[in-house]
C-alpha cells in the first residue's frame, strides 16, 4: 500500500503518466485507488501529434496495470522518506 | 440477453423465493442510443451498451457491425471528449490487449481497433458512461499474475536497500555490545600507560 498512500499525497499536483503503449499524459491528479488506477484532470499529451483526437479530452481514467512510469513534480518528492519507507517494506516491516 | 433497467444490481429471485447470487452476466448498467466507432474515420453505428460485472458489451441496432464484448481489463484508458462544432461529446477508449506483446499486435492488426469511441445520442449520458467505465475498471483489477510477490511490482535496487539495512543493523549491534558509554571514544588520558 506504500505507493497508494504516497500517491494520495500528490492529489491536486501535476504529474505525467507514461503508459506501456508509449502514450504519455500530463494532468492534475484527481484521485488514485489501491490498484493505482489514476484519474487525471485537465490533461495534455506529451506527443499530441500521435493522437490528434485526444485534443479535446479534459479528464481521463488510466488503468493501474497499464502504467509504466509516473513522473513526479520534483519539489514534492522527499527521496529520503521514500527510501526509508521502501527499506522498511522490503524488510517486511 | 434481456435488457435490464439502469442500476439494477439486485440478486434474482426464483419462483420458490430463494435468492440466486448475482452472476457474471447480470447487467449492472445499460445505455441505449450509443454509436460505436472503431476508428476515427469510421462513420459509426448506433446500438446499445451494457455493463456487466466484468465486461462492456455493445449490441448494434438492425444489422451493422458485429457486437462487441470488451472485458474491462482490456481498457487501458478511457476519457471524456468534449463536444466541438464537428463532433458531439463522447467517450474515448484506448485498449490494452492484455499481453506483454500487445503493442506489436496493435500495430500489426489493421483491424486491431486499439481505439474505440462511444457516442451517446444524449450528451448528458457522457458523464454516467465515464463513471460506469471507471467502476468497471475498479471491479476488475489484475489478479496479480505479473509476479506481484510482496512488493506489488515495485522495483528497487536490492543491493542498495539491503546495504542500508545491514549498515543500520550493524550500528545497532555495536551500540548494544558497547553498552552505550558516551565517553567510549574519548582520547586516553595523557598520564595513563600507553601500549
UniProtKB/TrEMBL annotation, chain A:
InterPro entries: LSM_dom_sf, Sm, Sm_dom_euk/arc, U6_snRNA_Lsm2. PROSITE patterns: SM. GO terms for cellular component: catalytic step 2 spliceosome; Lsm1-7-Pat1 complex; P-body; precatalytic spliceosome; U4/U6 x U5 tri-snRNP complex; U6 snRNP. One of its GO terms (biological process) is mRNA splicing, via spliceosome. Gene3D superfamilies: 2.30.30.100. It comes from the Eukaryota. Keywords: mRNA processing, mRNA splicing, Nucleus, Ribonucleoprotein, RNA-binding, Spliceosome. Residues 2-76 form the Sm domain. It holds the Pfam family LSM. Its main location: nucleus. Component of LSM protein complexes, which are involved in RNA processing. This is Sm-like protein LSM2. It comes from Auxenochlorella protothecoides.
TrEMBL record, chain B:
The lineage of its organism: Eukaryota, Viridiplantae, Chlorophyta, core chlorophytes, Trebouxiophyceae. GO terms for biological process: mRNA cis splicing, via spliceosome; spliceosomal snRNP assembly. Its main location: cytoplasm. Residues 1-27, 134-156, 175-195 are annotated as: Disordered. Residues 143-156 have a biased composition (Acidic residues). Keywords: Cytoplasm, Nucleus. Coiled coil: none annotated. It is found in: Cytoplasm; Nucleus. This is Chloride conductance regulatory protein ICln. Pfam families: Voldacs. Gene3D superfamilies: Pleckstrin-homology domain (PH domain)/Phosphotyrosine-binding domain (PTB) (2.30.29.30). One of its GO terms (cellular component) is pICln-Sm protein complex.
Amino acid at each position: 500500500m506504500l505507493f497508494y498512500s504516497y500517491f494520495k499525497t500528490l492529489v491536486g499536483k501535476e504529474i505525467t503518466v507514461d503508459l506501456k503503449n508509449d502514450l504519455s499524459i500530463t494532468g492534475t491528479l484527481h484521485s488514485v485507488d489501491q490498484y493505482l488506477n489514476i484519474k487525471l484532470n485537465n490533461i495534455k499529451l506529451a506527443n499530441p501529434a500521435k493522437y490528434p483526437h485526444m485534443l479535446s479530452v479534459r479528464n481521463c481514467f488510466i488503468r493501474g496495470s497499464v502504467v509504466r512510469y509516473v513522473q513526479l513534480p520534483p519539489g514534492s518528492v522527499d527521496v529520503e522518506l521514500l527510501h526509508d519507507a521502501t527499506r522498511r517494506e522490503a524488510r517486511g516491516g | 440477453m434481456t435488457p435490464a433497467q439502469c442500476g439494477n444490481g439486485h440478486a434474482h429471485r426464483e419462483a420458490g423465493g430463494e435468492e440466486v447470487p448475482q452472476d457474471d452476466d447480470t447487467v449492472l448498467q445499460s445505455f441505449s442510443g450509443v454509436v460505436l466507432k472503431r476508428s476515427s474515420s469510421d462513420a459509426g453505428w448506433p446500438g446499445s451498451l451494457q455493463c456487466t460485472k466484468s465486461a462492456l458489451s455493445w449490441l448494434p441496432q438492425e444489422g451493422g457491425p458485429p457486437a462487441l464484448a470488451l472485458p474491462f481489463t482490456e481498457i487501458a484508458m478511457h476519457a471524456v471528449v468534449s463536444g466541438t462544432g464537428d463532433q458531439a461529446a463522447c467517450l474515448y477508449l484506448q485498449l490494452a490487449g492484455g499481453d506483454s506483446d500487445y503493442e506489436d499486435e496493435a500495430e500489426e492488426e489493421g483491424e486491431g481497433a486499439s481505439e474505440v469511441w462511444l457516442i451517446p445520442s444524449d450528451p448528458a449520458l457522457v458523464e454516467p458512461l465515464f463513471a460506469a467505465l471507471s467502476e468497471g475498471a475498479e471491479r476488475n483489477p489484475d489478479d496479480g499474475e505479473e509476479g506481484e510477490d510482496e512488493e506489488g511490482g515495485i522495483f528497487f535496487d536490492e543491493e542498495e536497500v539491503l546495504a542500508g539495512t545491514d549498515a543500520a543493523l550493524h550500528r545497532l549491534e555495536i551500540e548494544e555490545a558497547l553498552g552505550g558509554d558516551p565517553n567510549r571514544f574519548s582520547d586516553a588520558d595523557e598520564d595513563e600507560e600507553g601500549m
